[in-house]
Amino acid sequence: MLDKVRAVVPWLAVAAVVIAMGYQQGLFTLVGRLAPGPAKAVALPGGGVSAGDRCGTEGYHRFRLPADAVTPPPRNESPPAPWAVLGAYGFEQGPRTPARFTINLRFGPGENRPLELSRTLGAGVAVEIEGPDGLVGGAHGLPVTWHQPTATGPGHRVRVAARGQGSVEVVLPVRALCPGQEGAEVMKRLQAPIDSHNTITGQPPYTLTVSFSDPGVGKLRASLGSPHRGDVLAAGNLVPLDPETGRP
Question: Is 64 exposed, middle or buried (0-12, 13-18, 19+ CB in 10 A)?
Fold first, then answer.
């Protein structure tokens, strides 16, 4: 019996070392870092609040969006001023990095007048991801990192020059996803289908909508006499349609 105990002890020591190294490398926290959030609103790491209490809701958006924000835009047609579009977006994860979506949002006045916005873009950015069965993830009050312009003016406001462009990065933690959702799989469904020639054949299975509400948007619209009203500016991942065929 004593010989068996002596044989087991070295293996326990090895296991302890492996576990210690695993914790140092973050391997045992990886599951938690990749886990979606609960079906209730919760505070998110880095800021913002999840839309977990809206999981499965069809057509949910934190802000009341302009009609053109949730429909495919016509190809080769200039968006109404002021405008917003999605730049690059993707999903990343790693043993030391919490799983997250990163989204680049671009916007501008679109006319010969500047667009002045708060540094936080109002109360923060809202993101919604929706599938055929309703909301699969989302959040509001998300902070932003400005890429351009980088200077801040009076009142902590940012001035996007006439005919210029603003650019911010938004991070959506995986905890903003609804129960049962996986970040990598959601990312795949946010991309438009393509054929063997890399030609887009339809709209993405999941929609991605990014929006914010800032008084500077409404002020510029009013000064331009725009038919659009309100302070909300939004962009989505829907593919522009050919005006003649009605297809991407």
Answer: exposed
CA 178, CA 168: separation in Å to the nearest integer? 25
Question: What backbone phi and psi angles, to 5 degrees, belong to 134?
Answer: 105, -165
Structure confidence by residue, pLDDT tens digits, 223-248:
999 888 899 999 999 999 887 777 88
> For residues 171 and 46, is the Cβ–Cβ distance under 8 A?
yes
Task: Find out whether 86 and 240 touch, Cβ atoms under 8 Å.
Answer: no
The verdict on pTM exceeding 0.90 is no
Give per-residue pLDDT as tens, 30-53: 444 568 999 999 999 999 999 999
Integer angstrom CA distances of residue 192 from 106, 123, 177, 211, 248: 20, 31, 20, 21, 10
Query: Which amino acid makes up residue 66?
Result: P
* Strand 125-131 to 83-92 pairing: unpaired
Backbone dihedral angles phi then psi of residue 38, each to the nearest 5 degrees? -80, 170
* Cα 86–Cα 88–Cα 90 angle in degrees, nearest 5: 115
Residue keyed to tokens 């959030």? 37
